[in-house]
C-alpha cells in the first residue's frame, strides 16, 4: 500500500502546485495570451507592452499595487477557456486581458464577463462583441476587427483606384475584412478570392490576379500567410505594376523583417505608428527599445495602452474594486494618454479614434519600418455600435 | 458487499479511483478551489473520448488518426442546435433547435455514429498506414469544412450561452455537471467492458491478432470492424457533446489533427486495451500539461521527449504500472 | 487568354507538385525500406529552411545556404535515427506515430528557443529574382522554374541511384523483403541510417528551396507534412515512382481547384455562394482525391510491397 500513499502525497503536491498562492493585497489581473507555437510573436509583444507600463509604474498601475498572472494559451480556444475558468474561479482575478485571436476571444469573453470580471481586449475585436453580444464589462482598447480594412477601402477610393482585386482567407475574420473594405470602397471589384486558412503557396491566386488586370490589390492575410504572399507577389514581378494595400497586420515589425524588400513601399492602414508625435508615444517607443532591444509593434502598443487604461481606472477608484460600476465608469472615460493620441470609447466600449495610412520604408539604419503618410479617418467608429444594447 | 480483504490490486485501484472521483467535488469545494471541478470534468470527458478510442485502437488494433473528427462533430451538433434554440430559428429550415440534453446528446451520438459509419465504410477497405492516413484525411476534410462554415462561426467557433437542460438537474451547476459526466463515463466503461467480453469483443480481438484467420473462419470481419468503429465514433460524439457543454463553446480546433494525436497519446499513456487505463492517461496528461505550462512556456520541449520515452519504455501505461503484472488484459 | 491562364496554372501546379515530390521521395524511401512512419519528416524540412536562411544571411549567398542545409538536415536526421528511431523499427506503426509526434513537439520548441518565435528572412538569390516569359503575357518567376528544374534533377538522380547502383539495388531489395537483405549479410543498420540521411537531405533541400517562397517559421513543416502524406499514400507507400505521380497529381488538383472551382461554380450558383463553397471545396479537394484513389485502389497507385 505504500505506493498508494505516495500517490496520495503526489496528488496533494500537484494540487498545491496548481493552486495559486492566495494573496489578499493588490488588484489581480489575469493575462491569457499566446506565448508558444504559431503566432506567439504577437502575444509576446502584447505581454511585453503591458509589462513595460507596469515597470514604468514601479510594479503599480495608476499608483495601485497589481498582481499580474500571465499564462500561455498556445492559440487553442479550449486551453484559453480553461485558463480563464481557473483565473475566475481559483485566482479570483478582477480584470482580464491579453487574448490575441478572435476565435479565442469568442470562447473566453462571454463567460468572463458573465462572471462579473472585467475584460480589456488588447487586440481581438470580433464584430459580435462590438454589436449584438456586447457587454458592459467588455472593453476593447485596440480596434474593432473591421476598422483598419475600412480605412484602406476609403484610402484606395481617395487615391482614385477604380478596379481593385481583393483577397482574404476563407474564415470569418477574412470575410469581415473584405466586407469592411467594401463598406468604404466605391469602385469596381476586379475579383474577390477566399484562400485556404494557413495556405502557403499563392501561385494560382497570383496568376488569376494578373489575368484579371486590376489597378490595385487589397489583401488581408495575417501572420505567415502574409509573408508568403508578399514574397511570392514580389517575385511575380507584379509589385511594380499593381500596387498592394493592406491592413497593418501584414506590415508589422514581426512581418517586415522576414518579408524583406518584398514589403518595401507598400501602403497599410494603422491606428498607431512609432512616429506619432506625442509625449506618451515617445516615452513608450524609447523605453520599449531600451527594455527589450527591439522595436515595438502595433501589438506592443496595444498591450501598453491596455495596461495604461486599466491604470487610469484603478487610479480613479483608488484601487477599490468592490464598486464595479465606479470602476466601469472610470474605464469608459478612458482618461489616459494613449500612445496613438486621440482616443475615446464609443457607446459599445470600442475605440473612436483616428486611422492613418503608413508606408513601409528603409530607415537610415537600413531597417524596414513604417512611416505615416496620411490620415484617412478622424474619430472613426465601428459599424456595429448601433446593434449594441447594454 | 465487497470483502475488502479479498481485493486484488486491480480492484483496489478501481475502488480508490472511484472513491476519489466521487469525493472530489465536496473536498475541493471545502478547500474553496472550485476550479478543480471543471478540470476534473474535463478529465472525465476526455477520458470518455480516450476510452472510446481504446475500443478501436487497443481492442480492435485499428489505428485511427482522425478520432477528433467525431469528437468535434458531436460538439457541433450540440452547439448548432443550441444556437437555433436560442435564436428560435430552424436548422436548414427543417427542424427547430433544442437545448434539451435528452434530445441533443443522443442526437450528437447518432450524427457522429453515422459519420463514423460512412468514414469507416471507406477507410476500413484499406489497412495499415493507409488506414492511419485516410482517417487523418477525413478529419482534415471536416476541419476545413467547419473552418469555412460561416453560418456557424467558421474558425471563430460558436459560443453557447449556457448548457443543455437536463430534466431534474441544473447542469449550469458545475458539481451536478461533474456527476453527470462521471455517471456517463462509468456507464460506458461498464458497457464497454461487457462488450469486450462478449462474442463481439472476442471476434474483434481475434481480428486484431490475426485478421486472415478470422476471415478464414468465416467471420464477416469487415462488418465487425465497421460496427466497432461506429460505436467508438458515437461515444466520441457524446464526449464532444459534453465538452461543448463544459466550455460552452465549440470550434474547429476541436478536430484539428493534433487533437487526434493528443487523444491518442492520452490513450497510450494510460495503457491500451484496458478501456479504463486511458482515463488514467487523460488525468495524467492534463495534469502534466497544467503543471508544465505553468512552469515554462517552452514546456513542449519536455513533453515531446517524454512521449518518446513512454512509447519506448512504458508501453503498459500508467494503468499497467498501477495494477502490476496480474492486471494485464 | 483563358487557354493561356490554364497553361500558367498547370505550370503552377507542376511547381507545387515538384516541391512536394522532394519531400515525398525521402519519406516514401524511409517507409519503403524500413517500414517506418516518420511524422518528424516535416521537422527536417523546417531545419533545412532555418539553416539555409541563417547561413544565407551571414554569407549573403543563397547557394551556400542551400549547400549547408543539405548536410545539416542529413546530420540531424541521422542523429535522430541513431538515438530515437532505430529502436522503433521493430515496433508497430502506432508507436512510431506517437514517438515521432513527440519529436515534432520537441523540434518545434527547440527551433523556437534557438531562433525565436518570429519568422526569419530569406530572399531569392539575385540571379533568379527575375521573371521569364514562358507563357506569353505571363512572366513566370525564375525561382519557381529553378525549383521545377531541381525537382526534375532529383527525380533523375533517384532513378539512377535506385536502378543503376548497388545502394539502389539494396534499397529495392529492402523494400520488397527486409529480412532477406539482412540475411544476405548486408549491414542493414548502416543501410537504414544512410537511407534515412538521404531522405532527410532531400527534406532539407525542399526546406531550403521553400525558404525564399514561404515564411521561414516554427511549425512550417506540419501543413506540408500532411500534404506529403497524402502524396505518398496516393502514390503507394514505398514507391518513388508513386511519389512522383502522387505529388504531381496533388499539385495539379490543389492548384487547379483553387484557381477554377469558384469560377466554375459561379456558372451554377450566385457569386457570393460560389466563392464560399468553391473555397471550401478547393481546400478539401486533395483529401477528396485521396479518398477517391483509395476507394479505387486501397494500396495506392503503385503499391511497392507485394
Give the overall shape of chain B, derived from the CA principal axes.
globular
Domains of chain B, number = 1
Structural class of chain C: mainly alpha
- Number of helical regions of chain C: 11
- Beta-strand percent range of chain C: under 5%
Largest sheet of chain C, described in full?
A: 2 strands, antiparallel
Overall body shape of chain C? globular
What ranges of chain B have pLDDT less than 50 throughout 5 or more consecutive residues?
none
Number of strands of chain C: 2
Q: What pair of chains forms the biggest interface?
A: A-C, 41 and 53 residues
List unreliable stretches of 5+ residues of chain C: none
Mean pLDDT across every amino acid position of chain C = 88
Number of helices of chain B: 13
Number of strands of chain B: 4
Task: Give a verbal description of the structure.
The complex is a heterotrimer of chains A (390), B (329) and C (306). Chain A is built from 13 helices and 14 strands. Chain A is of the alpha/beta class and 390 residues long. Chain A has 2 domains: 23-143 and 277-349, Response regulator (Rossmann fold); 147-270 and 355-386, Rossmann fold. In chain A, the strands form 2 sheets. In chain A, strands 7, 8, 9, 10, 11, 12, 13 and 14 form an 8-stranded mixed β-sheet that branches. Chain A has a 6-stranded mixed β-sheet with strand order 2-3-1-4-5-6, with helices on both faces. The longest helix of chain A has 20 residues, at 298-317. Chain A is globular, with a radius of gyration of 22 Å. Chain B has one domain (14-264). In chain B, strands 1-2 form a two-stranded antiparallel sheet. Chain B has a two-stranded antiparallel sheet with strand order 3-4. In chain B, α3 (67-87) runs antiparallel to α4 and α3 (67-87) packs across α9 (221-247). The longest helix of chain B is centred in the last third of the chain and has 27 residues, at 221-247. In chain B, 56% of the residues are buried. Chain C is an all-alpha fold and 306 residues long. Chain C has a domain at 11-219. Helices cover 75% and strands 3% of the residues of chain C. Chain C contains 11 helices and 2 strands. Chain C has helices at residues 2-34, 41-59, 62-83, 93-115, 142-164, 166-176, 178-183, 188-210, 220-235, 240-266, 271-296, and strands at 131-135, 138-141. In chain C, α1 runs antiparallel to α10, α2 packs antiparallel against α3 and α3 packs antiparallel against α8 (188-210). Chain C is globular. The termini of chain C are far apart. Chain B binds chain C through residues 57, 63, 65, 122, 125-130, 132-134, 136-138, 140-141, 144-145, 147-150, 257, 261, 264-265, 268, 298, 300-301, 303-308, 310-312, 315, and chain C through 31, 37, 84, 87-88, 91, 93-95, 97-99, 101-110, 112-113, 226, 229-230, 233, 237, 276, 279-280, 283-284, 287-288, 290-291, 294-295, 298-300.
Amino acid at each position: 500500500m505504500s505506493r498508494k500513499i505516495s500517490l496520495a502525497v503526489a496528488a496533494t503536491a500537484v494540487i498545491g502546485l496548481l493552486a495559486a498562492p492566495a494573496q489578499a493585497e493588490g488588484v489581480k489581473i489575469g493575462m491569457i495570451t499566446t506565448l508558444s507555437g504559431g503566432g506567439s510573436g504577437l502575444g509576446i509583444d502584447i505581454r511585453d507592452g503591458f509589462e513595460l507600463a507596469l515597470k514604468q509604474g514601479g510594479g503599480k498601475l495608476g499608483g495601485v499595487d497589481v498582481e499580474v498572472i500571465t499564462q500561455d494559451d498556445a492559440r487553442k480556444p479550449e486551453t484559453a477557456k480553461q485558463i480563464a475558468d481557473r483565473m475566475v474561479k481559483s485566482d479570483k482575478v478582477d480584470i482580464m486581458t491579453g487574448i490575441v485571436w478572435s476565435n479565442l476571444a469568442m470562447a473566453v469573453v462571454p463567460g468572463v464577463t458573465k462572471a462579473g470580471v472585467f475584460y480589456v481586449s488588447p487586440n481581438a475585436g470580433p464584430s459580435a462583441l462590438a454589436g449584438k453580444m456586447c457587454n458592459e464589462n467588455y472593453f476593447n482598447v485596440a480596434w474593432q476587427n473591421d476598422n483598419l480594412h475600412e480605412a484602406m477601402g476609403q484610402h484606395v477610393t481617395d487615391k482614385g483606384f477604380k478596379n481593385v482585386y481583393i483577397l482574404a482567407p476563407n474564415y470569418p475574420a477574412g470575410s469581415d475584412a473584405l466586407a469592411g473594405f467594401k463598406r468604404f470602397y466605391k469602385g469596381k471589384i476586379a475579383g474577390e478570392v477566399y484562400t485556404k486558412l494557413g495556405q502557403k503557396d499563392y501561385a494560382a491566386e497570383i496568376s488569376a490576379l494578373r489575368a484579371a488586370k486590376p489597378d490595385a490589390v487589397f489583401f488581408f492575410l495575417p501572420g505567415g500567410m502574409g509573408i508568403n504572399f508578399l514574397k511570392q507577389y514580389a517575385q511575380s514581378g507584379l509589385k511594380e505594376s499593381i500596387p498592394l494595400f493592406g491592413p497593418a497586420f501584414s506590415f508589422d515589425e514581426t512581418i517586415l523583417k522576414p518579408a524583406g524588400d518584398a514589403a518595401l513601399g507598400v501602403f497599410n492602414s494603422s491606428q498607431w505608428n512609432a512616429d506619432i508625435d506625442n509625449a506618451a508615444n515617445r516615452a513608450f517607443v524609447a523605453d520599449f527599445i531600451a527594455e527589450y532591444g527591439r522595436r515595438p509593434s502595433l501589438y506592443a502598443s496595444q498591450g501598453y495602452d491596455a495596461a495604461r487604461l486599466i491604470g487610469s481606472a484603478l487610479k480613479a477608484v483608488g484601487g477599490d474594486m468592490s464598486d464595479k460600476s465606479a470602476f466601469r465608469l472610470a474605464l469608459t472615460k478612458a482618461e489616459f494618454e494613449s500612445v496613438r493620441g486621440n482616443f475615446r470609447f464609443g457607446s459599445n466600449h470600442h475605440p473612436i479614434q483616428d486611422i492613418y495610412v503608413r508606408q513601409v520604408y528603409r530607415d537610415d539604419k537600413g531597417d524596414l519600418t513604417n512611416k505615416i503618410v496620411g490620415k484617412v479617418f478622424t474619430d472613426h467608429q465601428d459599424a456595429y455600435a448601433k446593434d449594441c444594447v447594454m | 458487499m465487497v470483502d475488502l480483504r479479498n481485493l486484488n490490486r486491480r480492484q483496489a485501484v478501481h475502488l480508490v479511483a472511484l472513491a476519489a472521483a466521487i469525493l472530489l467535488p465536496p473536498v475541493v469545494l471545502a478547500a474553496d478551489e472550485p476550479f478543480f471541478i471543471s478540470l476534473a470534468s474535463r478529465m472525465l470527458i476526455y477520458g470518455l473520448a480516450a476510452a472510446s478510442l481504446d475500443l478501436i485502437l487497443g481492442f480492435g488494433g485499428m489505428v485511427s488518426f482522425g478520432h477528433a473528427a467525431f469528437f468535434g462533430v458531436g460538439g457541433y451538433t450540440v452547439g448548432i442546435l443550441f444556437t437555433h434554440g436560442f435564436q428560435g430559428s430552424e436548422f436548414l429550415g427543417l427542424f427547430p433547435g433544442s437545448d434539451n440534453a435528452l434530445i441533443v446528446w443522443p442526437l450528437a451520438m447518432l450524427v457522429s455514429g453515422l459519420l463514423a459509419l460512412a468514414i469507416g465504410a471507406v477507410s476500413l477497405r484499406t489497412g495499415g498506414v493507409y488506414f492511419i492516413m485516410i482517417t487523418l484525411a477525413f478529419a482534415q476534410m471536416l476541419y476545413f469544412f467547419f473552418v469555412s462554415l460561416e453560418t456557424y462561426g467558421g474558425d471563430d467557433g460558436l459560443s453557447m450561452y449556457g448548457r443543455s437542460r437536463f430534466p431534474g438537474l441544473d447542469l449550469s451547476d458545475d458539481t451536478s455537471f461533474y456527476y453527470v459526466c462521471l455517471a456517463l463515463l462509468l456507464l460506458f466503461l461498464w458497457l464497454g467492458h461487457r462488450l469486450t467480453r462478449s462474442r463481439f469483443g472476442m471476434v474483434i480481438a481475434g481480428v486484431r491478432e490475426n485478421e486472415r484467420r478470422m476471415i478464414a473462419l468465416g467471420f464477416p470481419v469487415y462488418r465487425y470492424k465497421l460496427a466497432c468503429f461506429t460505436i467508438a465514433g458515437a461515444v466520441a460524439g457524446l464526449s464532444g457533446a459534453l465538452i461543448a457543454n463544459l466550455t460552452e463553446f465549440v470550434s474547429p480546433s476541436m478536430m484539428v489533427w493534433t487533437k487526434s494525436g493528443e487523444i491518442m497519446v492520452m490513450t497510450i499513456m494510460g495503457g491500451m486495451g484496458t478501456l479504463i487505463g486511458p482515463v488514467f492517461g487523460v488525468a495524467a496528461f492534463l495534469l502534466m500539461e497544467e503543471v508544465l505550462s505553468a512552469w515554462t512556456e517552452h514546456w513542449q520541449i519536455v513533453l515531446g521527449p517524454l512521449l518518446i520515452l513512454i512509447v519506448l519504455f512504458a508501453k503498459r501505461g500508467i494503468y499497467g504500472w498501477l495494477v502490476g503484472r496480474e492486471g494485464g488484459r | 487568354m483563358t487557354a493561356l491562364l490554364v497553361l500558367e496554372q498547370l505550370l503552377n501546379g507542376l511547381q507545387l507538385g515538384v516541391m512536394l515530390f522532394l519531400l515525398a521521395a525521402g519519406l516514401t524511401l524511409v517507409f519503403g525500406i524500413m517500414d517506418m512512419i516518420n511524422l518528424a519528416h516535416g521537422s527536417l524540412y523546417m531545419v533545412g529552411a532555418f539553416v539555409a536562411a541563417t547561413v544565407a544571411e551571414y554569407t549573403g549567398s543563397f547557394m551556400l545556404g542551400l549547400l549547408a542545409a543539405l548536410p545539416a538536415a542529413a546530420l540531424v536526421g541521422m542523429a535522430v535515427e541513431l538515438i530515437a528511431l532505430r529502436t522503433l523499427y521493430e515496433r508497430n506503426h502506432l508507436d512510431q506515430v506517437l514517438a515521432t509526434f513527440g519529436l515534432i513537439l520537441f523540434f518545434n520548441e527547440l527551433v523556437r528557443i534557438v531562433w525565436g518565435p518570429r519568422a526569419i528572412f530569406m530572399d531569392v538569390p539575385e540571379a533568379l529574382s527575375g521573371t521569364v516569359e514562358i507563357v506569353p503575357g505571363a512572366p513566370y518567376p525564375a525561382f519557381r522554374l529553378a525549383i521545377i528544374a531541381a525537382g526534375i534533377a532529383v527525380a533523375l538522380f533517384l532513378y539512377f541511384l535506385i536502378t543503376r547502383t548497388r545502394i539502389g539495388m539494396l534499397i529495392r531489395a529492402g523494400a520488397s523483403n527486409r529480412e532477406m537483405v539482412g540475411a544476405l549479410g548486408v549491414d542493414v543498420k548502416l543501410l537504414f541510417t544512410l537511407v534515412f540521411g538521404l531522405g532527410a537531405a532531400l527534406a532539407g533541400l525542399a526546406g531550403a528551396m521553400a525558404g525564399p517562397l514561404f515564411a521561414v517559421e516554427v511549425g512550417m513543416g506540419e501543413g506540408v507534412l500532411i500534404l506529403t502524406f497524402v502524396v505518398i499514400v496516393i502514390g503507394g507507400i514505398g514507391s518513388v515512382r508513386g511519389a512522383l505521380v502522387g505529388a504531381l497529381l496533388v499539385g495539379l488538383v490543389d492548384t487547379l481547384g483553387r484557381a477554377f472551382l469558384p469560377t466554375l461554380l459561379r456558372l451554377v450558383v450566385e457569386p457570393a455562394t460560389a466563392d464560399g463553397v468553391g473555397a471550401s471545396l478547393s481546400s478539401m479537394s486533395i483529401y477528396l482525391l485521396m479518398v477517391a484513389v483509395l476507394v479505387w485502389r486501397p494500396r495506392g497507385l503503385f503499391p511497392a510491397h507485394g
